[in-house]
Specification:
Length: about 400
């Protein structure tokens, strides 16, 4: 009787004669393997079974490497979970669809189908701030010299400032009486007024006021201070994924990759901060020299370090299973990773590796085929990648 070790794993591509060898370097391959693990020594062992830890139907589970907190959703509400007894604390945020989490600096960004949120270790609030409507203005008495003055306002909260409102133009002299818009969404606690100097072009800060302020009158342009920062910007859009690349939030909607402004994660420039791709995006994973992007018909690599300079490289990879991409440390792939994080995903022909330099390695191209699923999710356990398909 021939030994069935050492096992080299599954192979549903090779012919029967290539499935085993019993010479100086013996091996056996399997056509299929269900509920077993194959060790690095080529031995087979039963896969461990799972254990039910709670009957509560939590979804979108994630543990933060920043605070050690565990998050999830329950009946459409964001919750913080105590894994000691699986009780939870409601965070008073209603969410829809799939929820994504991302550690950014000392806080966590959370996205769902409708919005972006920020968790600071104590509470959750919306990351973005709506752009204020254009205020109304009227001429009143004052000491402004006759000329042209441009004005705009912004809303802000906890150090985050919104995009500027549309610019208003006042031509005349005296004073300018502003009727400020009401902040119905409650996403701001301060309103800042900007104005140019007489016949000037640069918007400068006039004053910051509580957001509940209804009116304000400008009588002089002598005490203007810093320049406005966020003209022609918009609140950052949410999307299907949530990643960090070169100081920018990165997400996707259909075939569009969407980028935030650098270090101003709540804002984007809708004129430039996007890339339109040929097909629907199925995963997004940044690496050192660019961004790996799964599409409905394959995988592309966006090579470069700036949004406006990214170059699309067709890799020839087969279509990935949506949601199965995972960024992993260099220790798993040795020299191929060059000491940097790589990306691994599951495709029709097995696991594929996207290196940090943009090279594609189809690890199972000659041994696996016919893998199909609507979606999945991958995790790393020790030296294994485990993917759950659905």
């Amino acid at each position: 009787m021939k030994r069935l070790t050492p096992l080299r794993g599954m192979d549903n591509v090779s012919d029967d004669e290539s499935m085993s060898s019993f010479g100086k370097t013996p091996f056996v391959k399997l056509r299929d393997a269900v509920n077993v693990n194959i060790t690095s020594a080529g031995r087979m062992e039963l896969r461990d079974t799972g254990t039910v830890v709670t009957e509560i139907p939590y979804k979108n589970l994630w543990q933060s490497p920043l605070h050690g907190d565990t998050f999830g959703t329950l009946n459409g509400e964001m919750v913080k979970i105590d894994t000691a007894d699986w009780s939870h604390l409601a965070l008073n945020i209603q969410v829809q669809g799939t929820v994504n989490y991302l550690v950014v600096n000392n806080f966590i960004v959370i996205s769902d189908a409708t919005a972006l949120y920020k968790y600071d270790g104590l509470s959750v609030e919306k990351l973005t701030i709506g752009t204020p409507p254009t205020p109304m203005l009227n001429a009143v008495d004052g000491s402004l010299f006759e000329g042209t003055y441009n004005l705009a306002i912004s809303w802000s909260k906890n150090g985050r400032e919104s995009a500027l409102s549309n610019i208003m133009t006042f031509e005349g002299e005296g004073g300018i009486h502003l009727v400020l818009p009401y902040n119905y969404s409650g996403d701001a606690d301060q309103v800042t007024i900007y104005m140019t100097e007489r016949n000037g072009s640069e918007l400068l800060k006039v004053i910051a006021l509580p957001v509940i302020t209804a009116t304000f009158t400008i009588n002089s342009d002598k005490d203007l201070t810093r320049a406005a920062q966020f003209q022609n910007l918009s609140p950052m859009r949410t999307g299907k994924f949530l990643k960090l690349w070169r100081g920018r939030l990165l997400t996707a909607d259909k075939n569009l990759l969407l980028f935030s402004q650098a270090l101003n994660f709540h804002l984007c420039d809708e004129r430039y901060d996007f890339i339109a791709l040929p097909q629907r995006v199925t995963f997004v994973e940044p690496v050192e020299s660019g961004i790996w992007v799964g599409q409905s018909n394959g995988v592309v690599f966006l090579s470069g370090s700036d949004v406006r300079d990214l170059r699309l490289v067709q890799t020839g990879a087969k279509a990935p299973v949506p949601g199965t991409a995972l960024r992993v440390n260099s220790d798993l792939f040795g020299e191929a990773a060059a000491g940097l994080e790589s990306v691994v995903w599951l495709a029709e022909n097995g696991y594929c590796i996207g290196t940090p330099t943009g090279n594609l390695i189809e690890a199972h191209a000659n041994t696996l085929k016919g893998i199909t699923a609507k979606g999945g999710q991958s995790v790393r356990f020790d030296d294994r990648i485990v993917t759950v398909l659905h």
